[in-house]
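Protein modeling request. Please complete all fields; requests missing the sequence field cannot be processed.
Requester role: graduate student
Desired output: 3D structure, token encoding
Chains: 1
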Amino acid sequence: MTRVAFVHTGSFFHLADLRDPAVRAMDPVDVYAPDLEPGGLDGFDAVYVAARLHPGVLARIAPILVGFLDTPGARMYIDGENTVGDWLPGTAETRRGTNFWAWRIGEDVGRRSVNREHPFWDGLADDAVHWHYHGVLTHPATAVPLVRLEELDRAETESEDPWGTPYRAIPGHSNTLMYYDAGTFTAEVVVSTMDASYHHGSGFMPGATQLMYRMMHWLRGAHAVPRAMVEAR
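Delivered output (233 residues):
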């Protein structure tokens, strides 16, 4: 059986994720990050790094997470709002604003699914990755962008979220929102600026639930996700 570590810092949404019967059916192992020590991920086949880990804890365990990426045949998914630019080699992150409801009101913020011929899309879907985001990434040359922001007409590039932070594409930037990388590390890794486990555990954003379930299935070595599973919420 594939052993998947669900690394979290005990926030209410992390605990709600672990209580979800659909998640429990995928047998993740509860790994409380404040207790994680070097060697603590030995024996695992995959790691789900939950969204919005406590920054202080994340800074301490980041070398453990990066070290796991040297595991042959392993997989890791890094959920959003984890400042990957500060600790993941080869990746930089630039914060962007958040239009929470663009997906619902039909606003085109420039978000696009790309490289659709890549096999990773066999287990992914547009509605799992088109809800919102918190930053844009640059990434290693071996990475394959899966979702990115396209630059729109200049008149449409100055939109800001309620906190005054622009959320459209940055001119001249790669503007990647999610990528797959099987070349930088021994392990495969997927990185996203969408915080799926936060919104799933908080009980809103149906696309977030889709993304979390699909990434859990990928970590377990599966591509196809049972329809009943992704429609469970």
